[in-house]
Amino acid sequence: MPASTFRFQGWSLFSLLAALVLLMTALTLALHPDLTEGVRSAIRATARSSFALFLLAFTASAFAVLVPSPLSRSLVRERRFIGLAFAFSHLVHAVLIYSYGQLNPEFWPGRTTVGNIPGSVGYVFILLLALTSFKSTARLIGGKAWKRLHVSGMWVLVAIFAYSNFKRIPMSAWYVLPFGLTCAAIAIRLVGKLAQANARRRSSSPSGRAAAPLVATDHSN
Ligand code: HEM
After folding, report:
1. Alpha helices, H only, the chain
2. Ligand 1 pocket residue status of 81, Cβ below 6 Å
3. 114 C-alpha vs ligand 1 centroid, how far in Å?
4. Cβ contacts of residue 192 below 8 Å, gap of 6+?
5. Contact assessment for residue 37 and residue 181, using Cβ atoms and an 8 Å cutoff
6. Dihedral angle of Cα 140, 18, 72, 202, to the nearest 10 degrees
7. For residues 196 and 218, is the Cβ–Cβ distance under 8 A?
8. In whole angstroms, how far apart are CA 49 and each of 79, 99, 139?
9. Model pLDDT for residues 80-128, shown as the tens digit of each residue
10. 94 CA distance to ligand 1 centroid (A)?
11. Is the dihedral of CA 215, 16, 179, 161 positive or negative?
12. Residue 55 CB less than 6 A away from ligand 1
């Protein structure tokens, strides 16, 4: 097995990322004199850490095809743990949302059922993707269903990130940045898929039999 460029791998990488999310949350809370405002800031901070981890998992296989390197290959190998760290970060987002609801009684009444739909759908997918990220549960649902769930789940989540950032642009022009990053990640993933399909076609055609595949294995989502 090729060596990973990451010093932390597998569960140690997950633990490191989870610890960083908790540290960031603790610092955000500690730096705010007002607890309610601190919790609100921590909700935003965990949305951002989730976003960064999600983008890594979402574009990993495309980067391995488009810019093959030890780093991009390590990213693909560690994608499961990066994805689980994303789920953990969003679990903290959920705990903070619950706490904020307790601290600010106007929070939930101020939200509409329709407004809660994208986030709730997102959480259903995060839960399903996290639960099926283990060998035993993945085997239980079968390879085809696993692939369908993980492909659709990642697209649903990227759409929620795009929407969540887009709807905040009128509040602050800074949200153009995460929205633009989301669009760029979608483009990178689509170009990566196209390059992968072309490479597969070339290697399966008689004239291109000797052509090496761009990535050795990619059962990507
Ligand atoms: C019902 C479930 C959810 C609720 C109630 C919720 C609630 C919130 C709240 C209160 C904020 C802070 C808003 C502010 O102070 O401006 C926030 C920020 C955010 N949330 Fe969630 N959220 C939910 C699920 C999700 C999911 C599933 C995603 C993504 C997959 C997500 C992505 C975001 C993003 C991108 C931000 C903006 C962060 C920033 O300011 O940069 N949320 N959410």
Report:
1. 10-31, 35-66, 70-77, 79-103, 113-131, 135-141, 143-166, 176-204
2. no
3. 14
4. 59, 61, 62, 63, 64, 65, 66
5. no
6. 20
7. yes
8. 16, 19, 30
9. 999 999 999 999 999 999 999 999 999 999 999 999 999 999 999 999 9
10. 9
11. positive
12. no
Rounded-to-integer distance, Cα 77 and Cα 218, Å: 10
What residues have CB less than 8 Å from 5, skipping those under 6 apart? 70, 71, 74
Angle between helices 79-103 and 35-66 (to 10 degrees): 160
Distance of CA 214 to the CA centre of its chain: 24
- 215 is written with which tokens? 């990535």
Using one digit for the tens of pLDDT, what is the confidence trace for 48-64? 999 999 999 999 999 99
Burial of 21 (0-12, 13-18, 19+ CB in 10 A): buried
**Residue 99: both structure tokens together:** 């706490």
Going by C-beta distance under 8 Å and a sequence separation of 6 or more, which residues neighbour residue 132?
138, 141, 146, 149, 150
CA of 47 to the centre of ligand 1 (A): 6
- The Cα 123–Cα 163 span in angstroms is 15
